[in-house]
Amino acid sequence: MGGLVVYNRNMLDEPVEYLRGIGDKTAETLKKYGIRTVRDFFYNLPRDYENYETPTSINNIRPGKVVVRGKIDSISTRRARRCNLSVTEGVIRDDTGAIKTIWFNQSYRAKQFSPEKEYFFTGNYEFKNGRYSLISPSCTEVTDVDPRTGISPIYVSHGKLKSHDFKRLMNKSRDKFDLIPDLLPTVATGVRKKALYYVHFPDSVKSAENGREYLAYEELFELILASKLNRSENEKLKSTPIPFQKEKIQEFVAKLPFRLTNAQRLAAWEIFQDLEKPVPMNRLLQGDVGAGKTMVAAMSAYEVASYGKQVAVLAPTAILATQHYEGLKQILEPLGVKMALLTGATKKKTELKTRVANGEIDLVIGTHALLTDDTVFQDLTLVVIDEQHRFGVEQRQKLMLKSPDGLAPHLLAMTATPIPRSLQLTVFGDLDVSILNELPKGRQPINTSILTEIETREKLYPKMRETLKNGNQIYWVCKAIDEDPRTETTSVKTRASKLKQEFSSSRVEFLHGRMKPAEKDEIMERFSQGEIQILVSTTVIEVGVDVPNATMMIIENAESYGLAQLHQLRGRVGRGTVASSCFLLTSGDTRPSRRLREIEKSTDGFYLAEVDLKLRGPGEIYGALQHGAMDLRIASLTDTKLIHRAQHDVEVFLKNPENMVKYKELMSGITKYQQITTLN
To answer: Quick check: 184 and 221 in contact, CB under 8 A?
Structure first.
C-alpha cells in the first residue's frame, strides 16, 4: 500500500492567486463562486466533453444537437421588446453554406469572435420564431482543441469567466499537477494527480473516464468515512435513558380513533428501544406521504413526557407547526401532557418561555422561535425535527445544545422523501432508519394522468369545473414565478390571471417562494379554510399543511421535475374522504418520458425513489433531504461496485488508528461530509 507524497506544504492549500494567470480581479470572481484555493480550482471539474472529430457540414445539417465548424460574421445584439433581455444573432459559414445562430442574455458573444478565426459551435439546431437557427451554442476556437484527440472539456461559467477562460487558465497550470499529493492509501503513488490531469486534459475518452472513476472513488471513500466517524462520535455521547412505559403506551393506542399500521408499530418499537439506551438516539423516520409519521412522533413524545422529561418538535413553517399542535393537542392533552405552541406570532412569548424554562411545559411545538438564545428548557430529552431537510446543520445543532449540561437529547428526524437503500447505506452510513411503507386504511387513492397542454381546455377544464362544483379545491403548480421569453414556461402570476378569467366564479390566488413568510402563511391558511378554491403555486406547497378538501393536483411542465418531487407534490391531495386526481401537463407534443410513465402507474414512493436515483442521480433526491447539496462532483450512488469497494477500504482504513494522523488532508477534508451526513 503506497503512502502519501512527502511535502512541506500542500500546494493545494495555496490561495488561487498562486496559479499563473490568475490576478486579483479573476481571483475575486472565482472566490464569489467558492473557488478560493488551488484545490478548489483543480476540483472545478468539466461538466462534460465535446468531441470535435467529426463536425457536420452546413449543407448536411438536420434538426437536433449538432457540431459545426466555421467562421462567424454579421453578429449583433439587440434588446427584446417584451422584457429586459438581450438577443445576440449572427451567421455561421463554412465552405458549404450558412446558418443563423442566436444567444439569449449573452451579449458578450458579439465581441467574442474574430472574423478570420474558425470555431466549433455546439448546440441544438431547431425551428424557433419562424425559422431554423442554432440556439445558444457553446463555442470553442479550433486552435484550442488538440487535433490528436478532438476532445475538449466544457466548464460551467462563473460570472464573467466562461468555459474557454477556464480552459486557458487550466492550461497555464499544467506544470502544477505534478505537485498534487495523493489523498488516500493507494497501490501506487501519483494516482490522484494523474486522475485530475486526465480529467482536465484527456488524451482519449477512456483516460477521462478512468480519471473520473478514481475521483468518484475518493469522494465515496470520504463520504462513507465521515458517516462512520459520525456514528462512533455519537456513541461517545450520553443521554437520559427513558424506560419503556408499557401501560402508558397501551393507553395512548387505545384512545386513538384508528388502528396503527404494522409499520407504525414497528417504527415506534424501534424508537422505544433506542430511548432506553444511555446514548442519544439518532434515528431518521422516513415514510411515504400520508404514512403516519406524525403519529409515531406523538407516541415517542408521550413516552418521554410521561416520564417527566421535556420534548421539542421543530417544524419548518408556522402553519405546519400550528397544524401539528392542534392535531396532537386532541390526543395528548387528555392524557395529561402540557403543551405549548411557540412561533413568531405567539403572544406573551416571555411568559411562555419562562414556563418552558421552569419545566411547566412538557411538549413545545414551534418553528425557528425554538432556536433563539432566550428559549431555555429545564430538561429537554427528545427533539423531533419535522422535514429535517428544511433546517441547516447549525440550526439543528443549536436546538440539540438546549439539553441539560453534559447530556445530549435523543433525536428523531422525519422526512417524507423516501430514500433509496443505496443512498441510506452511503450517505447516512450506519444511521438508524425506520421506514413507514404502509398507508393507513381509509387513505384515498390518487389517480394520475398525463395530458399535453394542448388538451387542457378540452379535457382538463371540464374535470376542474366538476371538482369545483362538488365543493372541492384544486392545486395548480407552475415552474416559474416570472415570465421568461426564452422559454415557453407559464409563470405563476400569468397562470393565475388566466384561471381567474376561465373560472370567474371561483376564488383564485397565487403563492411563491419570494413572498414574505407571513404572506405565505396567510394564503395557505385561507386555502385550508376553503376561502380559496384554486391555488396556483410554485413547489413551495411540496411540504405543507393537510387540506383534506383539496382533491385535484395539476403540475405544469411536469417533465422538468424529478420523480421524488412529483410524488411529493401529488401527495398534497388524497388526504380526505374523496378520491383524488393528479394531472401531469407536458409541453409540446413529444411522447411522455419514462419518468412520467413511472409516476402515472405507481404510487409507491420507495419504488419511485429508486427509479429516480437511476434516472437522475442523487442530486434530486438528496437535495430534497438536506439543506445544502451533497456536492458530489463525480460519484454516482448507483455505482454499487464502487460503493462496495469504498466501504471495504474504509473498514480497512479504520482498523489502523495511525491513519487518522498520517492522512491529514483526508481527515480535515471530511469535515464537510460529517456536517452533511450527521443529524445532530
So the answer is: yes
Residue 362 φ then ψ, to 5°: -85, -40
Nine cell digits for residue 301 = 413524545
Cα–Cα distance for residue pair 516/111, rounded to 1 Å: 41
Where does residue 661 rank: exposed (0-12), middle (13-18), buried (19+ CB within 10 A)?
Answer: exposed
Q: What is the pTM of this model?
A: 0.66
Residues 413 and 429: beta-carbon distance below 8 Å: no
Q: Give the three cell numbers for residue 656.
A: 489502523
Residue 118 amino acid letter: E
Phi/psi of residue 318, nearest 5 degrees? -65, -40
First to last CA, the chain: 35
Q: Which three cell numbers stand for residue 244?
A: 419503556
Q: Give the Cα separation of 481 and 538 in Å (integer).
A: 7
DSSP string covering 402-444: TSSTT---EEEEEESS---HHHHHHHSTT-EEEEE--PPTTPP
Backbone angles phi, psi at 342, to 5 degrees: -130, 105
Q: Which of 220, 194, 227 is nearest to 208 (CA)?
A: 194
Residue for grid cell 462520535? 233
Q: How confident is the model at residue 121 (pLDDT cuts 50, 70, 90)?
A: very high
Q: Among the residues of 290-347, which ranges form H helices?
A: 293-305, 318-332
493 half-sphere exposure, CB direction, 13 A CA radius = 7
User: What domains can be seen in the chain, in order of their start residue?
Assistant: 53-144 (2.40.50.140), 446-602 (3.40.50.300)
For residue 462 the three cell numbers come to 371540464
* pLDDT of residue 544 exceeding 70: no
| CA–CA gap between residue 274 and residue 382 (Å, rounded) | 11
88 and 94 in contact (C-beta within 8 Å)? Answer: no
Under DSSP, is residue 434 helix (H, G, I), strand (E, B) or coil?
A: strand
SS3 of 336, please?
A: coil
Tens of pLDDT, residue by residue over 228-267, are 887 777 778 889 999 998 999 999 999 888 889 999 999 9
